[in-house]
Specification:
It is found in: Cell membrane. With 306 residues, the protein is an all-alpha fold. It has one domain: ABC transporter involved in vitamin B12 uptake, BtuC (Orthogonal Bundle). 71% of the residues lie in helices and 0% in strands. It is built from twelve helices and no strands.
Length: 306
């Protein structure tokens, strides 16, 4: 296969994988605190709609991007209230959040279907974009893609090398021991939930501000569920999440190009490819050592104080 075909496909993989990467990093932060959030899809779609409406109303993509993060934080706060205040089942709460988010976005977004809003456009980075092969793949995108290049190492450093990050991990691994050491486990879990929700909202914003510049129902298209699976695939490591997000982005880009080329394969089969890969990844990751890498107290609610 010629470079003229491979390079654009890899560049499209980076673009398609960017919203998944935002959401995956957000879920990693949340799960590291010991809280399982299966509502990523609902949080993302609310961020997508918020970004679109704010961009359409104000004409400012930057403000819309931040507003989407805030919307994701507020949506995640619902999950936090159920899990931390009322000690409800985290799986049920996450599923309910997905249903709530997708339903609310479809209802509120009906008036905007088919409309376009200002967003971010590709900006070639000087010198870097001129590097053969690497330049067109990584350095000819919009600013929201470039932002993801720094997020994984920043999150890794925050979780592994800073006191707040270590405390957050302690809340997810040994909450009883962390409490005995004087840490406010609930506060760190709140931080994980809200911080993760902010990143999920940013992932949703990318879809309406950079990927499509328009609104249509179900714009996230199951990317939130892919992000949940990628956390396991990445063994809860931000660095591996980058590879996983671009892998899934590449599959999405490939199936779109196959459809556009007029392939004889059924379109339903092509649309199934990313989700079939999700199932395969989950099986392989669990079969190896993925389950053992999860935070020890993941999904376990805190015991009420005496």
């Amino acid at each position: 296969m010629e470079l003229a075909i491979i390079v654009p496909l890899l560049a499209a993989a980076v673009q398609s994988g960017t919203p998944i990467l935002y959401a995956t990093l957000g879920e990693i932060v949340t799960e590291k605190s010991g809280v399982l959030n299966l509502g990523v899809e609902g949080v993302m779609i609310l961020g997508t709609l918020t970004a679109f409406v704010v961009a359409l109303t104000t004409g400012s993509p930057v403000l819309a991007f931040v507003a989407a993060g805030v919307a994701g934080t507020l949506a995640a706060a619902i999950h936090g209230m159920v899990c931390l205040w009322f000690r409800g089942n985290q799986v049920v709460s996450g599923l309910a959040l997905t249903i709530l988010g997708t339903g609310l976005a479809d209802y509120l977004g009906n008036a905007y279907v088919g409309r376009t809003a200002p967003g971010f456009s590709p900006v070639a980075l000087p010198l870097l974009s001129e590097i053969p092969i690497v330049g067109p793949i990584f350095f000819n995108h919009d600013p929201l893609v470039y932002l993801t290049y720094g997020l994984p190492p920043l999150i890794w450093y925050g979780l592994m090398r800073t006191r707040p990050g270590l405390c957050l991990r302690a809340a997810g691994e040994y909450p009883a021991a962390a409490t005995a050491a004087g840490l406010d486990v609930a506060a760190y879990r709140w931080f994980g939930i809200l911080g993760g929700g902010f990143l999920m909202g940013l992932g949703g914003a990318y879809l309406s501000l950079s990927y499509t510049h328009l609104w249509t129902n179900n714009l996230t298209g199951g990317r939130g569920w892919i992000a949940v699976a990628l956390v396991i695939f990445a063994f809860w490591r931000p660095g591996r999440a980058v590879f996983g997000a671009y892998l899934f982005g590449g599959i999405m880009a490939l199936q779109l190009r196959l459809q556009a080329s007029g392939t004889q394969l059924p379109s339903s089969l092509l649309l199934m490819l990313p989700y079939a890969l999700t199932v395969i990844v989950l099986v392989l990751s669990s079969w190896r050592r993925g389950a053992s890498e999860a935070p020890a107290a993941l999904g376990v609610n805190m015991e009420p104080a005496d």
